[in-house]
Design a protein that fits this description.
This protein is about 30% helix and about 40% strand. It has about 130 residues and is of the alpha+beta class. The strands form 2 sheets. Strands 3, 4, 5, 6, 7 and 8 form a 6-stranded antiparallel sheet that branches. It has a two-stranded antiparallel ribbon with strand order 1-2. The protein is elongated. The relative contact order is 0.14.
């Protein structure tokens, strides 16, 4: 019995007076790193979209179902737009209910960061635009 207690102590870590298994500790650290990364990415994206942006009309060229790797399916639209006579391509995740609203060939309004052209946002409030 003493041998089992020693083995359990080797697989646990004491934090703030609480004993947790080393596996749970690793999961906690991993979740913390992912959370910090997601927060930093969101802050960066919001900062880039709040200053030095341009608004462009983008044409939807594809709508497809995508698998995110953990057993869930979602939808994604792919679009192209021109900025300073250069063509860019972007993607945006969409909800299933939006599949009835948008179609390939429709145009939408995209807000693009001029500092980082990969940072884009679909301005849903504008609805569909007339393609030119």
């Amino acid at each position: 019995m003493m041998k089992n207690d020693n083995m359990n102590d080797n697989c646990s870590i004491r934090i703030f007076g609480k004993k947790i298994s080393s596996h749970n500790f690793f999961a906690l650290i991993l979740c913390t790193i992912i959370g910090v990364f997601m927060i930093c990415t969101t802050l960066y994206r919001n900062k880039k979209l709040s200053t030095n942006t341009d608004v462009v009309a983008a044409k939807i060229i594809d709508i497809n179902q995508v698998h995110n790797g953990i057993g869930l399916w979602g939808y994604e639209m792919k679009y192209t737009f021109y900025l300073n006579d250069k063509m860019y391509t972007g993607t945006h995740s969409i909800q299933k209910k939006e599949l009835d609203i948008i179609h390939v060939g429709d145009c939408i309004e995209i807000i693009v960061s001029l500092d980082n052209k990969k940072v884009q946002k679909w301005n849903k409030s504008k609805g569909l635009l007339n393609c030119q």
